[in-house]
Amino acid sequence: MQIIYNGTDITSSVHPTSIQMIDNSGGIPDSLTLKFSDTEGIWGKWKPAKNDTLQVKESGYDTGLMYIDQIMQTAGSFGLAALSIPQTSKSARSQGWESVRFLEIVTQIAARHGFTIKTYGVTNHLYERVDQIEQADFSFLADRCSLEGYALKINNKSIVIYDEATQEKIVPDPELSIIRESNINGDFEFIDKSTDIYGKCIVSSQALSGYIEGEYTASGTNGPTLKRNIFASNQAEANRWAKGIIRSFNKHMLTGSLAVNLNTNYAAGTTIQVTDVGMFDGVYFTDRLVHDLINNKTKVKLRKPLEGY
Other CB atoms closer than 10 Å to residue 81's CB: what's the count? Predict the structure, then answer.
């Protein structure tokens, strides 16, 4: 294992008592939390600061560059929590665009923070008007991605945007991505819920051309109608966003959580096969992973891929 602080390998100088690496499929930043035995006050002498960089590498897994977000000290111990986004990106901003394409917005935000861009299955939609109103850049971009059915993942100074429905259709790797009941370390839980699950979504907009109402019906799903008022410039856009909005809720209909022995080969945003647990056997999308390097355990949060949208 390597612990790298501000570009310097400090592994041999520190004594970690807790290391948790959280890998999210998208929407929220990845995170890293470390606690150290510090009876000699080493960290107090080093004087870490927010936005310093932190990175952990373990058995081929790399958190990428993370930015310190929180500093903690108790008697004899010291702690650091870091996110995959810098402090500067948290500032609320307001900006408007006219006749702009999706990737133009992404490129501007990436350039502002010195990030690169990777996209998978993304359509470069043209928008008549887009407004970012008192919202932090990556929060705004995550919302824009959600409308289009995309996921935004921030990792190692890269903006990664992918089409969720396409990613969910990928067949799990039989060598790496099968979890059997015998592999589960402790309890497991699967929940098929109805709360916040919708059968239809309607997007209403007063565009320059007049009133627009877009909709999307989730086939085979019973539930109330979800309504949103969002500026959409045309019918196709309103229909597309209704689909993206209902997906953002319904994708959490069937979820699972379990733990296995530490396995850093698993990655959030990939599909995985669960077998031998009973009625909830099947293919799932890995929504979140928590790698606990000290207790040698990986906690896995799963969700069932949606059919048709």
Answer: 17
pLDDT digits (tens, 9 = 90+) for 183-219: 999 999 999 999 999 999 999 998 778 899 999 999 9
Q: Tokens 């929407």 identify what position?
A: 27
Would 309 be classed as within a structural domain? no
In a domain, 27, yes or no: yes
pLDDT at site 176? 78
Q: How many domains does the chain have?
A: 4
**DSSP 3-state assignment of 249?**
helix
What's the pLDDT at 80?
98
Say how far apart CA 253 and CA 192 lie, in whole Å. 6
Question: One-letter amino acid identity for 284?
Answer: Y
- Report yes or no: 116 and 110 within 8 Å, Cβ to Cβ: yes
Q: Which two tokens stand for residue 298?
A: 């990986």
- Residue 59: the pLDDT is 86
Q: Which residues of 123-146 are buried (b: 16+ CB within 10 A; e: fewer)?
A: eeeebbebebeebbbbbbbbebbb
Residue 241 region by backbone torsions, left for phi larger than 0, else alpha for psi between -120 and 50, else beta: alpha
Last residue of a domain, one of 67, 84, 101: 84
Residue 102 backbone phi and psi in degrees, to 5? -50, -50
For residue 289, is pLDDT > 90? yes
